[in-house]
Amino acid sequence: MKISQLIAVVLVGLAGTVNAQEKVKLSDSTQLVYAGVKGDREGLYQIKNLKNDGVWVQGNYKNDARTGTWYFFNSKKELDLRYSYDQKKLLFFNNDMLKDVTVEILSDDSETKKSATAPLPLCPIELYASIVASKVNDKNDGGNDPFEAEITAEVATDGTATYTAKFRGVNKKVITNSLNVPQDHFNIDWIPAMYKGKPIASKFVVYAQVQGNGTSNYRRFRWND
């Protein structure tokens, strides 16, 4: 074999290694596709919406860290968010994204509560609700019947979040439990609430119907005691 041919074969082999594609089915309607080797992400990263042949999330990784501009779409294939990880800056936001969400600014100052921006998960709301609500099922003692849950993320000033779910158990008793939300394949980043350039602690509440098989549906309702 000629040297030039040998080099070409080696380069092709290396390219195939670097660009190896991993596919992970996150749910019946969601699939993760990313480039990488042995779990390390490098290059294009997508969470696909198998219901409409669209994409929930698309961005890039470099050295297993998010880089460049990331895009977040809703179930109508409309852009909800565009965020630059290089600039640490929100580039686009669809106001309709929060129309069925409840936000509470954790401040005693009335002007801060009135004027602060809402916290934002860097995730489409429908996908966010599905990911978090899927963690509720293990806490429910109601068997396999669907149930409605109020899911709260308490977002700190550094963008970290703690999660709780409130729902009714088999005896109609209201149960509130903490949730362990971090994911191996997709971790939800947060932009904290802001007022005059300073981050403010807040609560972000969504409502979902949780299925007995561990899946969930984002629901537009208000669950009350």
Characterise the protein shown here.
- Residues 1-20 form the signal peptide.
- Keywords: Signal.
- The chain is mainly β.
- The protein has two domains: 1-93, no CATH class; 96-225, no CATH class.
- The chain contains three helices and 17 strands.
- It has helices at residues 3-18, 110-115, 125-133, and strands at residues 21-27, 30-37, 40-49, 54-62, 65-73, 79-84, 89-93, 102-105, 120-121, 147-155, 161-168, 174-179, 190-191, 193-195, 198-200, 202-210, 216-218.
- A seven-stranded antiparallel sheet has the order 1-2-3-4-5-6-7, with no helix packed on it. Strands 8, 10, 11, 12, 16 and 17 form a six-stranded antiparallel sheet that branches. Strands 9-13 form a two-stranded antiparallel sheet.
- Strand 2 and strand 3 form a beta hairpin.
- The chain starts with a helix and ends in a 7-residue tail after the last strand.
- Mean pLDDT is 84; it is low at 3-18.
Order of helices and strands: HEEEEEEEEHEHEEEEEEEE
**Largest beta sheet: what is the strand line-up?**
1-2-3-4-5-6-7
Domain unit count:
2
DSSP strand count:
17
Our count of helices gives 3
Q: Globular, elongated, flat, extended or rod-shaped: what is the shape?
A: globular
Into which percentage range does the β-strand content fall?
A: over 45%
Rg (C-alpha, Å): 20 Å
As residue ranges, the low-confidence spans are 3-18
